[in-house]
Each structure stands twice: as structure tokens, then as C-alpha cells.
Design goal:
The protein is built from 3 helices and 6 strands. By secondary structure, the protein is an alpha+beta fold. The protein is globular and about 40 Å long.
Length: about 120
């Protein structure tokens, strides 16, 4: 079984909104651990407004929108959750760190595209 991966998908720096992508068989489960709503029961290709919570401190980090996309109809061909939160680099890193604590692994450069290739979503 492949590891579920996560990465910050917006450029470094300060912007209005930051994005973080989670992809893999446990993406919905891991994302639900830190989000105020159970994303495992959400229909595919839906958006959900809620709070991202700290696993250790049990406090809200930020409000975010979670986009739920279920396999196989995703870029990678796997379950995908994308979080969009306020653009502070500190908040973005904290959300990313919470996903790692919840069980995701940091994605390597190009890993989302490589998974799309492996899963027949694109070819050379």
C-alpha cells in the first residue's frame, strides 16, 4: 500500500489563501482527524467549510475549506483532499504539520504527478 502524502501547493510567501493537498488511500481518514467535519462521509467533489484543529492542543488553528475528491476521478487517481486556509505562512505550516502528525507523509518533489502517471491518469 502506498503512503498517503501531503504538500503545501501554493508558492512560498504571504498571500490571501494557502493550499495543502493530501493524496492516498487514507487521505479522507487523515484529513478528518484534524477537520471539524467527517470528510469520509462527504460526497465526492464537494467543498466543506470548517475548522482545522490541533491534535495535541485540541484547539482550532484556523477556518478552512476542504475540497473532497474521491478516487478514481482525481488528478492522482487516489482519494484527494485539498485544504484552503488563510495565507499566513505560519498557519499554513501548522496545518501541514498537523496532517503529518495525523499520519500523512511529506510529498517529494513531483510525487503527485508521478502518482498520476502510475495510476494511468497521464502518459508520456
Amino acid at each position: 500500500m502506498k503512503k498517503t502524502i501531503a504538500a503545501i501547493i501554493t508558492p512560498r510567501g504571504i498571500g490571501a489563501i494557502s493550499g495543502i493537498r493530501v493524496s492516498g488511500t487514507s487521505a479522507l481518514e487523515i484529513s478528518s482527524k484534524i477537520f471539524s467535519k467527517n470528510l469520509q462521509e462527504a460526497p465526492s467533489h464537494t467543498a466543506h467549510l470548517g475548522s482545522v484543529c490541533s491534535l495535541k492542543e485540541k484547539t482550532s488553528i484556523d477556518q478552512a475549506i476542504a475540497l473532497v475528491m474521491k478516487a478514481p476521478n482525481t488528478y492522482t487517481g487516489e482519494d484527494v483532499v485539498e485544504f484552503f486556509c488563510h495565507g499566513s505562512p505560519i498557519l499554513t505550516k501548522k496545518l501541514f504539520d498537523e496532517l503529518i502528525l495525523a499520519g500523512a507523509f511529506p510529498a517529494k518533489a513531483g510525487e503527485f504527478t508521478f502518482r498520476a502517471f502510475q495510476n494511468g491518469k497521464m502518459d508520456l
